[in-house]
Amino acid sequence: MTSDLKHSAGATAQLDVDAIRADFPILSLRPHGKPLVYLDNAATGQKPQQVIDATSAFYASQNSNVHRGIHHLSQLATEKYDAARESVCRFINAPDSREVIFTSGNTEALNLVAQSYGGTFLGEGDEVILSQLEHHSNIVPWQMVCERTGAKLRVIPIDDNGDIILDEFEKMLGPKTKFVSLIYVSNALGTINPVKKIIELSHAQGVPVLLDSAQAAPHMPVDVQDLDCDFLTIAPHKMCGPTGIGVLYGKTKHLEAMPPFKGGGDMIISVTFEKTTYNRLPFKFEAGTPNIAGVIGLGAAVEYLSAIGMDRVAAYEAELLEYGKKALREVEGLTFIGTAEERTATFSFTLDSAHPHDIGQILDGEGIAIRAGHHCAQPVMKHFGVPATARASMAFYNTTEEIDALVEGLRKVNEVFA
Questions:
Q1: Is the same domain home to 98 and 207?
Q2: Which single residue of 77, 136, 332, 345 has CA 20 to 30 Å from 162?
Q3: Which of 285, 307, 329 corresponds to the end of one domain?
């Protein structure tokens, strides 16, 4: 199956990376007196000035609560807030902006579906299918729900390339399967899962599918109508947006059947001590004062990425992937962990000479920021028989020169620990 990333690699438009980098103030920093080489984008992405300005402008000249006031500031804040929802709707090609729910983050979006949908519709003996590639935030919530309902988790295994074994998924998909929750792109390895095929197979059995697109939405076009997923979650802080905000997309038929996840203001129509009538979508799932500045910042991030074009982002990052694979192979003692053909520009690796934490520390002294650890994906580490990896993850503002700097930094690590 050809991935979204590979499909986009034929895009002819080139990015003006120098101009893009000028939009990101943090990229001009010099930690330890060295130019910053930021390669920790799978953990969080950097923010362009446009997003910083939108967030600051809200607090400076628009600050008010939304959906409650009739005064000028409240109306202005509400207009900006609602416009951001429409921007996200267009970004993922959702049919209706009412299907776009704002949460406190990708993790809360996953918990919302697990607790509200799973807690309502799962029962004793039912099965939920995950994959061995999952981030902890798409494992623990389902474990909690299964403990409460008597449902069981089943796990799609992966091979030594880091690809899920699709044949095994087909074998476990059956009458007891009531839900599939799957990471779109592995945060630990960069593997792009064959999600359209998984959704097709699941829907043939009447099984809904959630896609965790925390690592997909920042790197490729995401179209929920083309995917036909039932739910999709987004981590805005990984795609130029603020922290403390998340997105859940859900098909209307599911969201209307699910009970609210939280109770409080704005998610109600009327309240008495005898009965509460819940609000319509999307407000039914947005209790209390939201992260208004975060939502407005997200809107600015989505508009920024849309102006660049996610097909162009994917094509450029595909070039970084190919360059990085060749360059890093030249480092003595380096072993890639995860070599899936379909992947984003994420490099998870070990060095014979040093523990990943030592690698990260030496590189930090050179101004190079990577991640070292189990990446909240301990089942992945267990599969490969390693406690941790070093991970360098790219974004559209990174360059081949920064990959060269990483290679030189890793050679220094080898020298230090030789």
A1: yes
A2: 332
A3: 307
Structure tokens at 158: 């992966």
Q: Which two tokens stand for residue 398?
A: 């990174």
Position 408, amino acid: E
Residues of the chain with confidence (pLDDT) below 50: 1-13
Are residue 159 and residue 84 in the same domain, yes or no? yes
Q: What is the 3-state secondary structure (H, E, C) of 195-242?
A: HHHHHHHHHHCCCCEEEECCCCCCCCCCCHHHHCCCEEEECHHHCCCC
Q: Which residues are catalytic?
A: 376
User: Do 68 and 134 have their domain in common?
Assistant: yes
CB-CB neighbours of 278 under 10 Å: 16
pLDDT score, position 2: 33
Please identify, among 292, 307, 322, the residue that sits at the C-terminal boundary of a domain: 307
Single-letter amino acid code for the residue at 169? F
Residue of 320, 373, 296 lying closest to 66 (CA atoms): 296
Domain count, the chain: 2
Planar angle of CA 225, 231, 235, nearest 5 degrees: 100
146 lies in the same domain as 68: yes
pLDDT at position 224: 98
Residue 152's domain is classified under what CATH number? 3.40.640.10
Beta strands in 72-176 (DSSP E): 100-103, 127-131, 152-156
Give the pLDDT confidence score for residue 374 in this predicted structure.
94
